[in-house]
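Box 4.2: Ligand-aware structure prediction
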Amino acid sequence: MADEANNPLLRPLPDGIVPAEEVARTEKRWLLAMVGLLAVLMLVVVVTSSIGAIHPPSNVERIDPTTLHLSGEFVESNLGTAQEPDGSLTARLVADQYAFVPNCVKLAVDTPVKFRLTSADVVHGFLLPTTNVNTMVVPGYVAEVRTRFTRPGVYRMPCNEFCGNGHHGMWTHVVVVPKTQFPTLAATERTSCVQQ
Ligand code: CUA
């Protein structure tokens, strides 16, 4: 009995001091609340991505950035806008420090459009204001975005991913013209609005 009275752990605590068990209990509750919050946030990500179709803006398609200019889809003669057999348009661009090639993309209104971009050096960004087009252009990958322009106009497109000292001067623009002003292209023909 005397031992128990002398044991400091069993002595009544002075006012204002919280017993260790209560501290542990409170900590456990907060930990549970935090884990719960994380679970809710994860759920929000999963639900919005499956229902709202919010997903990484591109497909996963690899390409060798060191040989873009030599052969394959992104050789210079294949850049610009191509017309597919079904009438839709495919615009191919290469981003490099500090330009997009071509720096003026010509497209037609009310037509399915597919952008295919890749980078020759570092990560760049491609964003068309007021449209769903917004993707990173990562070297080694092909970025693909599909859209359809509902009105003609000029969409100015500064690179929106910091890519070096010349980043602020890196831009292209997309000119959307009425269907009647868009040429009919042969299968191998490419068009752009770059001033010759
Ligand atoms: Cu390219 Cu910023």
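In the box above, the bound molecule is dinuclear copper ion. Residues 20-51 form the longest helix (32 residues).
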